[in-house]
Design brief:
Elements: H1 2-24, E1 39-46, E2 54-63, E3 69-79, E4 86-93, E5 103-109, E6 116-119, E7 123-126, E8 131-136, E9 145-148, E10 156-158
Antiparallel strand pairs: 1-2, 2-3, 3-6, 3-7, 4-5, 4-8, 8-9, 9-10
Length: 166
């Protein structure tokens, strides 16, 4: 249900951003013109095991047809974590020559059984770039994770001890 709400929110935000851009450039609103509907992609991936921790990641992305910019959000379910511990799915852009500090794509707190739902907000990104994510804290460094072109619904696992974009 949250995924559907997020997808609708992203589509509406992209629509209004397009309309605002037209007004800022002195063009009239679309009126009867059709605004292209963003391509929405929702995929799930199994996280590589990180010691006793297992998890499933859900990535939801929206890209305007022909657009260079996109938005995606990340959420996950993990099991086997330490009880009452904050976990983050951290990551970054593999394509940046000078990447910014890593982002916390999603966060959550484990319950007494070590299970957590991690959630994050929508991130504005470059549609064609590759991104990575990994669980933090992790018993190994660097931790295993996923990398891929998230806005196209692709990701592959990378093992512990390997650079995320290597």
């Amino acid at each position: 249900m949250e995924t559907v709400a997020l997808a609708v929110s992203v589509a509406v935000a992209l629509h209004y951003r397009t309309e605002a851009s037209r007004l800022a450039h002195g063009r009239p609103p679309a009126g009867r013109q059709l605004v292209p509907v963003p391509r929405l992609t929702t995929v799930t991936f199994r996280m590589p095991r990180d010691g006793s921790i297992a998890g499933t990641v859900l990535i939801t992305a929206a890209v305007q047809p022909g657009g260079r910019q996109a938005q995606f959000s990340v959420s996950a379910t993990i099991t086997g974590g330490r009880p009452d511990t904050v976990y983050d799915l951290t990551g970054n852009d593999c394509s940046a020559a000078n990447p910014l500090p890593d982002h916390a794509w999603a966060s959550g707190v484990t319950d007494a059984a070590g299970t957590a739902e991690l959630s994050g907000h929508a991130w504005a990104v470059t549609a064609a770039d590759a991104y990575w994510l990994a669980l933090s804290p992790s018993p190994v460094s660097p931790p295993p994770g996923l990398r891929g072109t998230f806005t196209r619904g692709t990701a592959t696992p990378f093992p512990a001890g390997q650079a995320p974009c290597g």
